[in-house]
């Protein structure tokens, strides 16, 4: 199966999202696919020059110009931001999905680092609380031990045991 027939049979969105894209995005995808199709046709027509197919290159060139004009008209309605690294990868004939994979790996690493910090804080909090209970039971005689970090590790429950206590001087 060649690229052009594969593109025409593909109904998947370039966005990769499960939500329905807006009409401008669908129009952009359609125009980009048409542009790709016409560029492929121009390449085929240029590589197999035959007297009977002389109008094919002109037709493909016309469709290419039409697609480029449509993209130019869509520009004010589109707010897509493509990182320069992705464009550089495309210019170097490399797969831009590598950029996405690298960003995901960076995010996973950062997430693991943050998770480790939260676990260390939770462990320290538990040790501190245990030491305070063992060494200064009078400070916490009316207070219940805190639960430490919440189960979802998103917020820490911090209680001030000295709050509302009367000091005897």
Automatic annotation (TrEMBL):
<dbReference type="Pfam" id="PF09748">
    <property type="entry name" value="Med10"/>
</dbReference>
<comment type="function">
    <text>Component of the Mediator complex, a coactivator involved in the regulated transcription of nearly all RNA polymerase II-dependent genes. Mediator functions as a bridge to convey information from gene-specific regulatory proteins to the basal RNA polymerase II transcription machinery. Mediator is recruited to promoters by direct interactions with regulatory proteins and serves as a scaffold for the assembly of a functional preinitiation complex with RNA polymerase II and the general transcription factors.</text>
</comment>
<dbReference type="InterPro" id="IPR019145">
    <property type="entry name" value="Mediator_Med10"/>
</dbReference>
<keyword id="KW-0804">Transcription</keyword>
<feature type="compositionally biased region" description="Polar residues">
    <location>
        <begin position="1"/>
        <end position="22"/>
    </location>
</feature>
<dbReference type="GO" id="GO:0016592">
    <property type="term" value="C:mediator complex"/>
</dbReference>
<dbReference type="GO" id="GO:0003712">
    <property type="term" value="F:transcription coregulator activity"/>
</dbReference>
<feature type="region of interest" description="Disordered">
    <location>
        <begin position="1"/>
        <end position="23"/>
    </location>
</feature>
<keyword id="KW-0539">Nucleus</keyword>
<comment type="similarity">
    <text>Belongs to the Mediator complex subunit 10 family.</text>
</comment>
<comment type="subunit">
    <text>Component of the Mediator complex.</text>
</comment>
<dbReference type="GO" id="GO:0006357">
    <property type="term" value="P:regulation of transcription by RNA polymerase II"/>
</dbReference>
<keyword id="KW-0010">Activator</keyword>
<keyword id="KW-0805">Transcription regulation</keyword>
<protein>
    <recommendedName>
        <fullName>Mediator of RNA polymerase II transcription subunit 10</fullName>
    </recommendedName>
</protein>
């Amino acid at each position: 199966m060649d690229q052009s027939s594969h593109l025409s049979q593909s109904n998947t969105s370039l966005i990769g999202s499960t939500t329905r894209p807006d009409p401008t995005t669908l129009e952009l995808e359609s125009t980009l696919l048409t542009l790709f199709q016409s560029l492929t046709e121009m390449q085929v027509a240029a590589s197999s020059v035959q007297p009977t197919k002389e109008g094919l290159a002109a037709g493909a060139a016309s469709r290419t110009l039409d697609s480029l004009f449509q993209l130019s008209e869509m520009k004010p309605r589109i707010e897509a931001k493509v990182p320069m690294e992705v464009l550089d990868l495309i210019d170097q004939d490399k797969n831009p999905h590598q950029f996405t994979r690298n960003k995901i790996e960076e995010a996973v690493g950062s997430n693991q680092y943050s998770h480790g910090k939260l676990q260390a804080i939770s462990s320290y909090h538990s040790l501190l609380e245990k030491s305070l209970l063992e060494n200064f039971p009078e400070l916490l005689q009316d207070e219940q031990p805190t639960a430490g970090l919440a189960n979802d590790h998103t917020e820490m429950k911090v209680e001030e045991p000295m709050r509302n206590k009367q000091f005897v001087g």
